[in-house]
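Input record, target 12 of the design panel.
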């Protein structure tokens, strides 16, 4: 489940920082980490830059952070069919 904390961690990262799904868990990583054994096969959900564009800015209220987390969580849930 994507939480507000995940969204905040992503917003606090570099523009290419990525929110990923791997083995049923969510993490926020530098894109270079995706080439390591620990994260090989991870699904990139959204980058920080994409989130900022989607949300319309970098400074989000608590409500907006929760809304973004819920939208991302729903997108992942829909992947499962």
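The sequence produced for target 12 reads:
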């Amino acid at each position: 489940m994507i939480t507000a904390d995940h969204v905040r961690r992503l917003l606090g990262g570099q523009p290419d920082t990525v929110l990923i799904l791997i083995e049923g868990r969510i993490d926020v990583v530098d894109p270079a980490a995706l080439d390591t054994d620990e994260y090989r096969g991870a699904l990139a959900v959204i980058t920080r830059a994409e989130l900022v564009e989607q949300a319309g800015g970098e400074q989000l209220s608590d409500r907006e952070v929760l809304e973004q987390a819920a939208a991302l969580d729903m997108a992942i849930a829909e992947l499962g069919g």
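Residues 62-79 form the longest helix (18 residues).
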